Amino acid sequence: MFRCRDVGQLLYEYVEERLEPPVSQQLEQHLADCPGCLAFINTYKQTMRLSHELRCDDIPQELQQKLRSFIKTKLSSARPSFWDRLRSRLTGT
Amino acid sequence: MAVTLQDDELIAKLQARDESALEALMVQYQARVFGLALRLTGNRQDAEEVLQDVFLAVFQKIGGFRGDSKLSSWIYRITTNAALMKLRKRPKVKEIPLAEELGPAMTDEGMIAEPVVDWSRLPNDELDRKELGQRIEQAMNLLPADYRSVVVLRDVEGLSEQEACEILSLSEAALKSRLHRGRLFLRKQLADYAVSQTGVNPGPQHV
After folding, report:
1. A69 & A49 share domain
2. Which fold has domain B99-206?
3. Distance between alpha carbon B207 and the CA centroid of its chain, in Å?
4. Do A76 and A47 have their domain in common?
5. CB distance B155–A42 less than 8 Å?
6. Which residues on chain B are in Cβ contact (under 8 Å) with A46?
7. Is B162 exposed, middle or buried, given 0-12, 13-18 or 19+ CB atoms closer than 10 A?
8. Mean pLDDT of A19-26
9. In a shared domain, residues A9 and A31
10. Residues B140, B189: contact at Cβ < 8 Å?
11. Taking the CA of residue B174 as centre, how many other CA atoms within 13 Å lie in the half-sphere pointing to its CB?
12. Does residue A8 surpass a pLDDT of 80?
């Protein structure tokens, strides 16, 4: 007989579909008779869905431009300028 | 308009210091890097800085990239580390409660001892989904960094367990325990909110 506590302990594996089929079936039998556990599992899964909805797929245009000008500045300051090259040639360094 | 390149081609060009490949890399990854940084830091300003630092670091470090992991995993790892550095500079968040404390109270016989509301089934006019979305965003920002990084990589970004373990250098067991506890914490925050909003009384049948 499954108790609510067992459901709590197996919840993660159940949601991740890691339980052996017979264990999973036993757990589901408990859920059929236990509104509290069913509500808990439903809201646990709903939390995961809501988390996934936080995934952000857009990057504002102005930020894309800012990124490119940042990179451009950094790369050009890292590259030796004409004067740097001339100086090193003259001083032999 | 930059073309989408295959990873190995992109890596080879970047290693040859080809700046046009950097543009292709940005087109391919900028939205993911920014999105991940935004969720991890919970702060737009920090996410912007992470975005810039990541692409600079990728271009500077690509010479040492040996292809032991996928290019995307490597970039996510750099992003995650840069975002966590930002978080570490902020005042430390308190630890979250243990898993047992985040679930319903149990009787000595191991049965649920209190009503549990199923707010996942409530219609939108009773519990606004948009509001719920804002709540989970706030709750996410309350999670300490160790938990937040796991929840963001697995549940927000939808990465596989293996990839998340690799990016965070975590064992499967550690990932599992943090992820579960993080989810329970978020669930509790949403449940408290849902009950306060709807005043639903689950009735004796839920006890």
Report:
1. no
2. Arc Repressor Mutant, subunit A (1.10.10)
3. 33
4. no
5. no
6. 119-120, 190
7. exposed
8. 95
9. yes
10. no
11. 11
12. yes
- Between A74 and B151, where is the model more confident? B151
Domain boundaries, given as residue ranges, for chain B: 7-88, 99-206
* Architecture of the domain delimited by B7-88: Orthogonal Bundle (1.10)
Q: Are A48 and A9 in the same domain?
A: yes
Give the tokens for residue B154: 């697995």
Q: Is A53 part of the contact surface with chain B (CB cutoff 8 Å)?
A: yes
A80 plus A47 within the same structural domain: no
The whole-angstrom distance between residue B112's C-alpha and the CA centroid of its chain comes to 30
In angstroms, rounded to a whole number, what is the distance separating the alpha carbons of residues B130 and B133? 5
Percent of chain B with pLDDT strictly greater than 70: 94
Q: State percent of chain A over pLDDT 70.
A: 91
State the nearest Cα–Cα gap between B185 and chain A, in angstroms. Answer: 10
User: Which residues, 6+ apart, have CB-to-CB distance to B178 below 8 Å?
Assistant: B146, B147, B150, B151, B170
The verdict on A39 and A66 lying in the same domain is no
Instruction: Show the tokens assigned to B156.
Output: 């927000």
What are the chain A neighbours of B183 within 8 Å (beta carbons)? 44, 47-48, 51
Mapping DSSP onto H, E and C, the string for chain A reads CCCHHHHHHHHHHHHCCCCCHHHHHHHHHHHHHCHHHHHHHHHHHHHHHHHHHCCCCCCCHHHHHHHHHHHHHHHHHHCCCHHHHHHHHHHCC
What is the span of the domain harbouring residue A72? 61-91
CB contact under 8 A, B179 and A12: yes
What pLDDT is attached to residue B206? Answer: 41
* Cα separation values, B154 from A78, B30, B129, B150, Å: 37, 19, 22, 6
Query: Residue B186's pLDDT is what?
Result: 97
Both A42 and A65 in a single domain? no
Residue in B112, B180, B71, B98 with CA at minimum distance from that of residue A2: B112
